[in-house]
Amino acid sequence: MKLIIGGAYQGKLAYAKKEYHLTEGWLDGGTCPPEAILSCSGIYNFHEYVKRMVNTDNIVSESEQFSRIFLQTDNLSGLEQQAEAFAEMLCRKNPDIVIISNELGYGVVPMEKEDRLWREAVGRICTGLASRADEVIRVVCGMGQRLK
């Protein structure tokens, strides 16, 4: 698995397509079906994927059951366990995925509790993914900096 992080509009997707020679099989995390992440080549806007899963209350199919783990608790230790479980499951089911996510923790802390939990979830899931990833790259101005 490869994890690419960076600020908004920094050229993360273009970098990934060029670096990993992946022109097909990409999903937009803001619109893709939840279960599609298990078989895609790559996902961009992963932070938006997490946001959608945070707001999902009506998933019933067994193939989508993994997405219910997001933010089912108000305590941070529960969130950490859920984030770890998701990261482990994703790495096991789609070990070759390329994940692209915005870094969300460098701005103003959101006023809304749901937004703060979403930001926390993205950070904790990306931490879990980074610990399992073969490579972690930060992209700034279209240039990749290898962190792992």
Explain the layout of strands and helices.
Elements: E1 2-6, H1 12-20, E2 26-28, E3 42-44, H2 46-54, H3 76-93, E4 98-102, H4 113-132, E5 135-140, E6 143-146
Parallel strand pairs: 1-4, 1-5, 2-3, 3-4
Antiparallel strand pairs: 5-6
Describe the structure.
The protein is of the alpha/beta class. It is 38% helix and 18% strand. The protein contains four helices and six strands; from the N terminus they run E-H-E-E-H-H-E-H-E-E. It has helices at 12-20, 46-54, 76-93, 113-132; strands at residues 2-6, 26-28, 42-44, 98-102, 135-140, 143-146. The chain has a six-stranded mixed beta sheet with strand order 2-3-4-1-5-6, with helices on both faces. Helix 2 (46-54) packs across helix 4. The protein starts with a strand and ends with a strand. Mean pLDDT is 86; it is low at 58-63.
